[in-house]
Fold this protein.
Amino acid sequence: MSVETKESVVLEGGTYEILRKRLQDHAKDLQSRVNALNSERKAVFGSIEPKLLATERITTENNCTPRDIAALGDTFLFAYNVQFGLKSTTELADVFSVYELKESTFEARPLSLLQDAQFLADFNNLYKYYKHTFFDRFFVVGPNLYMVFRIGKSPTDLKAFKWLITPEKTLKYIDNRSDHEYVFPTQHEFQWKRTSRDHYRDGRHPHISIEDRVFVECVGGDLTIKIEDNTEVGKGIFSEPVNDPEQKLDDAEIHYAVVGHLILFKIKPYRELAYRYYIYNEKIHEAGRFDEIADSCVMLPDDQGLIFPNGFYLVSGDYKRFDFKLEKMLFERRITSPNGEDTLYVFYNRESGLFLLLSYNLIDQSVKTPIQCQGYAFFHQGEMLYFRAESSPQKHHAVQVWQTPYVCPDYVPPVEQKSFLFKIGNKDIVRAMAESQNIINLTQREDSYQSLYDDIYALSVSVLDSYFWINNPEAHNLGEALANVRDSASAAIDEFDKVRLIRKTTADRIGEVQTRAEKLLKSIKPELMERVDAFVGSLSQLRTLRGEIIALRELRYADLNTIQSLETRVVEQSQKLSEATVEFLLKPDALSVYHEKVEAVNAKTTGMQRAVEAKDIEEEITTISKEVETMIEVVGNLKIADATKSTQIIDGCSAIFTRLNTVRAELRNRKKKLQSVEAVAEFNAQLKLLDQSVVSYLDIADSPAKCDEYLNKLLVQLEELEGRFADFEEYVIQLSEKRAELTSAMESRKLALLEEKNKQATGFQAAADRILKAIAGRVDAFKS
């Protein structure tokens, strides 16, 4: 890279870094304004923060396993299963109890809610005719409450009793024929599409095209996801091994789903029983394996990403996996707080009855501490009860009471109605803050994000255009900070393109050196080497490679960790090979190959017929000399305990050098002798050619100007000949004489042409005088 190029790169990089720093400063200003607005919003609308209110205990008459809770106004049903010994019938009180929630405490109430004659008959018949009946759960859909009982070993062996929840929060029994209404929503809020022959791209490394946006294959021993439609290269951004390396392109079963900038994969390689699940992020060109989405996966609000039982994944590329490993968790429902800030995602395991509650915050873009429980219920003012089942039946059951933001839609918290924020509305403010927070998060991302500044600019413009109050001082003038972010992002777009190009060039260069290094390191196997020149050649290659690796550090935006790791490997390999070289050199006939090479060069020198052949022989001598120098350097750098061994190796190398110098001198003499012989014929031929050129130029030179032109051409030919035969003094003298000769000839020709032109001019003048004299005589003879 030239000095000018380096200076250009530094200048561009410096400009970009200044713009990025400016953008982050504006983002900090925006963050402080969002925080201030959020604090005022909470004061105006009465924010409800999640907190533990109490831990109460419910005591049952018998040892039992609690199963679920259902809220009805201020009262709730508590359901459980009792294992009796000698008792032959199961009564209503053996399954249900009713309590009232009063200021985070529980008060027992009679079972009058459930005293319906038909329900009691159906209940008794259920336990009478199904030996293994036990209560499974409550299930609420709209105004209906379902009591779901398990009547067999399978989770699908169910019986559902349907109740209507009246406006007065009492129950009205409907029927026991509503099993078909107990269903779960779609577990994946997107459509899986299976790839077909139309998606195939044949080539050296065939793959399957997913709408020309990403490419995937399971051939060649691994599953690979690529972002370039290049079938000549098998590498991609993600790969992992498959069980059957011999499978073909159409052997794997591949499904995909496009969710905005996220592309999800459901892949079953050939002869494998389980599907593998992957998420590819088109924004940051990253892919990862997420088998957690197998059972269920739903959308986060405002297209912020995906959530699944064991974690979540955001469009920005951030994701989190929870430590617990839950399987067969089905998505049941989502509950959104009235202000739109929080959304609760409920997942359920039909076999164990376990619930998983994930509360996602739209502004923070994070999930609060997940809750695993056996049953839960929400009340009018957002109170939530939940409990965890014990490992064995007990009489006393701990139930936690939490305050949550998931209040009923008709709940009206205390608000400051005179505030300007109240006129805007809580949901509108929350949405604006969430979008502003998204912009702030983008400014803090690593700039490997492909369209980072384009997205920041577009989102900033969108927020500025979407909210009429954004520039109002009472809303902390978010618009001013957003406009600064927008302008900085716009200025950074072009500079970022330049930096990306520099980074790509640097990455390509590092990748090229890394590929050659990997190939060289794999090819060097000292135990298989039988000639010393193989050792020395490999050492020379390693030395050259290390120099290239060190030079990579000068590249801008170079990955220094990768370079350091590569250099360390090369140094370690060089050290091992050097030690192996010394061990080999201690053998009696180790240097015989160089003696053979020197004698072969000597034979070529003796049999040389033309001087031009000396160039190749000189290169061979130089190569041998460098290899021997490398050997001496290796021996000198290693600490050999026995000095006689190093002396033995150096003496052997010195003998080669002595013989090599002799051959070099013979080559020089032989070359000079051949050049003298060849020069005679060549000089005579060139001189003859020059003479012919002189004759030709003298013949066609028909003006003084052409004489000067041809003389210059002849003098140039003479200078070339003088340069070619500068080593031969006698030829230089002849050329000097020839210079004077052809100069004299061309000057004579020039003078002759000038004399001829002068004669012509004199003749023309005499003729003109005669004509003029005759005209004058005629004129004098005229009378009028």
User: Anything to note?
Assistant: The two ends are 93 Å apart (CA to CA). The first strand starts at residue 51 and ends at 72. The longest helix spans residues 643-700. Confidence is low (pLDDT under 50) at residues 1-13.
